[in-house]
Write a structure and sequence with these properties.
The complex is a heterotrimer of chains A (291), B (268) and C (274).
Chain A lengths: L25 H9 L7 H4 L2 H17 L4 H17 L3 H26 L5 E5 L2 E4 H27 L2 H10 L4 H29 L9 H6 L2 H23 L19 H23 L7
Antiparallel strand pairs in A: 1-2
Helix pairs in contact in A: 3-4, 3-6, 3-11, 4-6, 5-6, 8-10
Chain B lengths: L1 E9 L5 E10 L4 E5 L6 H6 L9 E6 L2 E2 L5 H4 L3 E4 L12 H11 L4 H15 L14 H13 L5 E5 L7 H16 L3 E5 L3 H7 L2 E6 L2 E6 L1 H4 L5 H6 L6 H8 L8 H12 L1
Parallel strand pairs in B: 3-8, 3-9, 6-7, 7-8
Antiparallel strand pairs in B: 1-2, 1-4, 4-5, 9-10
Helix pairs in contact in B: 3-4, 3-5, 4-5, 10-11
Chain C lengths: L1 E9 L8 E8 L4 E5 L6 H8 L10 E8 L2 E2 L5 H4 L3 E4 L14 H11 L4 H14 L15 H13 L5 E5 L7 H16 L3 E5 L3 H4 L5 E6 L2 E7 H6 L1 H5 L6 H11 L6 H12 L1
Parallel strand pairs in C: 3-8, 3-9, 6-7, 7-8
Antiparallel strand pairs in C: 1-2, 1-4, 4-5, 9-10
Chain lengths: 291, 268, 274
């Protein structure tokens, strides 16, 4: 019986066809466009700069406007409809609560009891809970929620790769993009390495399940190899990047880009104008009293 | 010595890395585990010293379940040498590195020194006892990692890819070490990608694919023609000697020596 | 095309020279296998030939390295990247981590060189086709087997169309299937006419692929000749290199006074063309 591998059906000996010419065929153009990260809704498909502008203006305005009505208006008129359009209303709500709740609770505790005020609502030990304190805490919480949702809306509808590509199209040097992504890449690799190193030391009797003192003593045999192998990997990784010409100065002709439109540009300018108006109103004291 | 009963293991991400393995390894056996990456080999051996715990089934060591026993405790019975020495070596001197394991097991004084000396001698690093491990080349650092586990004197010793990255001299030395461990009655289990090393050094070969054992026997059985369909299904290739012997109708000749023997016998 | 004249190299902070007085010339279309025991200087030679040593990693180089007659000393690596490609042994550290598909990963080198998109696409398609990995184009580069990841790394360098393609132990961290895939890829690379320099322990991989073998030991060239004779020479075993399986088997058979059966060569040849 002759030896045969399971996959020994390697047909096609013809040499590969070259796509010639200096211009991109329509088929190729479509393919390249498909490489962009998927964007399920119109809101997702907005240019990252537009989404970033919306998040920034919403956040800043929420802080500048006083009271409750201002931030809540931003939420109801701006953030929530956008989140609904993007189909992530519930997800965003969960995310915002998760992020803002711990901070909000601690802020609330502190300000309810320590804010100077006259109307005392109840007393716990030496601490007075004042109406003014509750009001202050309430305003902080509202702002926190608006900010969390505005930033979350941006984060959840924008793929990091898409953002970086768009920034590069707008003139950011390629090295910045690569540095940011390369840093992210190092962390999971380091965790993986640390896990292996710990396993190897445990296999030699290092006790990580025993007393606290034993565990502390166990840290030394981990640090050295983790650092050393991390450094080695960083060096290997950077050499591998260099041979792919990552260090080359000058612009790159990227494979895909994110669409922008004059309408979106107009909206961005409009948002900027609104922000400036709000700041001016606050600064000059001509803000209506309820805001 | 080692009993795996209906063992299954599922990683947190849902990968079923071991899918029902029944395996028994007796005291003093010399076993190689082969298979492609992802077949479950490394996952399997990590159950032997408790680094991983079964999702289903049981692992018994010397008749006792490993359940409830700490890794540091099991390490006294099962030594495991990892593939990458640089993910282990931390001491500034070879001697200190080798002492780490036995010291964790409670050895002190002359007993400890003796264990370390013996291990260094076995791997050929006796003259480098005072050296910095990173002044040694990669092959010798791999031998150092091996020595640091040998010194623990465990009845079972598991080697993960002992010959990867080793040059010819290193491979020969490792073959010698496996042989002397076997003659000292210790149980040796090795994971390897090197079919020739496996055929020449081990008396039993276990082939894994997709979390299961697909073949289990002597090198002659596992690399013989009857096993070829199973081997092919896991994209492993028998050593050249086995294929030449089969082509010549000489039966199963997994090693050079057995092929030569068969040729001589055919002639005579 | 590539020339090393009297090259010696010392890593930064080390007293000892890893490479000593090397004189090597590699022409277009040559497929050179580089063998030697560990620490012989194979990896260092690869780094020097690619211009990474000393430009990126520092150290001291004496002698000269010339590409098409011009010295590369002082040239930044990204300029050399269009001429010389280098693939390392670790598939993980060669993944850029910034691309979402294999297509983009393979195109990355060409994009970095500032090539126009249409040209990048043509080169990428060609590279994927040469290595027969078009079916991987839409896959996530982070979710490939080691062998597949190495193929993507090779394709990515190939898309930069280097004149000299260097591979430093490309199969060292791969399983048998991965090794087979890379061996196949090397054959296809060789067929493109690019000059190759492959450092490897696995002489079986170099057998039938290389036109020439250079053996290094202690930073010096101890053997340099046509592959068929070099792989069968006793000089290799002398410096601790395992010759290909067919050579070892043939020797063992001859040593017992028997004739080497033709079948041995047939089976081994079948391996080489697989």
């Amino acid at each position: 019986m002759a030896w045969r591998r399971a996959d020994q059906i390697d047909s096609a000996t013809a040499p590969p066809a070259r796509t010639g010419g200096a211009s991109l065929s329509p088929a190729d153009a479509t393919y390249l466009a498909s490489l962009a990260p998927p964007a399920p809704t119109t809101y997702h498909r907005l240019n990252p700069l537009t989404k970033a502008a919306a998040a920034t203006v919403a956040t800043l305005a929420a802080f500048i406007l006083g009271g409750y009505i201002g931030p809540l208006t931003i939420l109801v008129v701006g953030v929530l409809p956008a989140a609904f359009a993007a189909g992530i209303l519930l997800k965003l709500g969960r995310f915002a609560l998760l992020i803002s709740l711990p901070v909000a609770v601690s802020v609330a505790l502190v300000s309810v009891f320590t804010r100077a005020g006259e109307t005392v609502l109840f007393v716990i030990g030496p601490f007075d809970a004042t109406l003014e304190g509750v009001d202050f805490a309430g305003q902080i919480m509202v702002r926190l929620i608006v900010v969390a949702m505005a930033l979350g809306l941006f984060g959840l509808t924008t793929d990091p790769r898409a953002l970086v590509v768009d920034l590069e199209h707008r003139g950011m040097p390629p090295r910045v993009a690569f540095a940011a992504a390369a840093t992210l890449e190092t962390i999971p690799a380091m965790i993986d390495r640390a896990t292996t190193i710990q396993a190897a030391q445990r296999a030699r009797g290092l006790d990580t399940e025993g007393s606290l003192r034993a565990r502390l003593r166990g840290v030394m045999p981990l640090i050295g190899p983790v650092i050393l192998s991390s450094l080695t990997e960083v060096e290997e990784r950077s050499l591998a990047l260099e041979v792919r010409a990552f260090g080359r100065p000058g612009r790159r002709d990227l494979l895909w880009s994110l669409p922008d439109s004059s309408r979106q540009r107009f909206v961005r300018w409009l948002l900027l104008v609104v922000l400036v108006a709000v700041i001016a109103a606050r600064v000059t004291g001509s803000m209506p009293a309820f805001l | 010595m080692i009993d795996l009963r209906e063992l299954a293991f599922v990683y947190p991400d849902g990968t079923r890395a071991i899918d029902g393995v029944d395996l028994s390894i007796g005291r003093g056996e010399v076993v190689a585990i082969i298979g492609q990456n992802g077949s479950g080999k490394s996952t399997l051996v990590k159950h032997l010293n408790g680094l991983l715990r079964p999702t289903e089934g049981a692992v018994l060591l010397e008749g006792e379940p490993t359940l409830g026993r700490r890794v540091a405790n099991l390490a006294a019975r099962v030594g495991l040498v990892f593939q990458d020495p640089d993910r282990q070596i931390f001491a500034g001197r070879v001697r200190a590195e080798v002492s780490f394991g036995p010291r964790n097991l409670g050895l002190r004084g002359p007993e400890l020194d003796a264990a370390v000396d013996e291990a260094l001698l076995a791997v050929g690093l006796a003259d480098a006892a005072g050296a910095n491990p990173y002044d040694l080349g990669y092959s010798r650092r791999k031998l150092l990692a091996l020595a640091s586990v040998l010194a623990m004197g465990t009845p079972v010793i598991v080697l993960d890819e002992p010959t990867t990255g080793q040059d010819s001299a290193g491979i020969t030395r490792i073959q010698g070490i496996v042989a002397s461990l076997a003659s000292a009655g210790r149980t040796v289990i090795a994971i390897s990608h090197d079919m020739r090393f496996v055929a020449e050094t081990f008396r039993r070969v276990v082939v894994m694919r997709a979390g299961r054992v697909v073949l289990d026997g002597s090198p002659a059985e596992v690399f013989g023609e009857d096993s070829w369909p199973a081997l092919a299904s896991t994209y492993l290739e028998p050593p050249l000697a086995a294929r030449v012997g089969a082509r010549l109708g000489l039966g199963s000749t997994p090693t050079e020596a057995s092929l030569v023997e068969a040729l001589v016998a055919a002639r005579g | 095309m590539l020339e090393l004249r009297g090259v010696a190299y010392r890593y930064p902070g080390y007293a000892r020279s890893v490479l000593q007085d090397l004189d090597i010339a590699i022409d277009r279309h040559e497929i050179v296998g580089l063998v030697g025991p560990n620490e012989a200087g194979k990896s260092t030679l690869c780094l020097v030939a690619a211009g990474l040593a000393p430009a990126s990693i520092g150290g001291t180089l004496t002698g000269s390295v010339l590409m098409d007659g011009k010295p590369i000393a002082g040239l930044p690596v990204h300029e050399l990247a269009a001429w010389v490609g280098l693939v390392f042994q670790d598939p993980n550290t060669q993944r850029s981590g910034v691309t979402g598909t294999v297509f983009e990963e393979v195109a990355l080198g060409s994009v970095n060189l500032g090539r126009p998109v249409a040209e990048t696409v043509a080169r990428t398609r060609s590279s994927l086709a040469t290595l027969r990995i078009e079916h991987l184009a839409d896959r996530d580069p982070m979710r490939l087997s080691g062998g597949q990841a190495q193929l993507v790394a090779i394709a990515s360098i190939l898309a930069m169309e280097p004149r000299l393609f260097i591979l430093d132990e490309p199969t060292a961290q791969l399983d048998p299937e991965g090794t087979r895939l890379v061996g196949q890829a090397l054959r296809r690379l060789a067929a493109t006419g690019t000059a190759l320099l492959i450092a490897e322990h696995k002489t079986d991989l170099l057998d039938g692929l290389c036109t020439r073998i250079i053996a290094l030991d202690g930073g010096r060239v101890v053997l340099d000749g046509p592959a068929d004779t070099a792989l069968e020479s006793d000089g290799l075993t002398g410096i601790g290199i395992q010759p290909p399986a067919r050579v070892r088997l043939a020797r063992a058979i001859k040593a017992s006074g028997l004739r080497v059966p033709d079948e041995l060569e047939q089976v081994a040849a079948g391996d080489r063309s697989a």
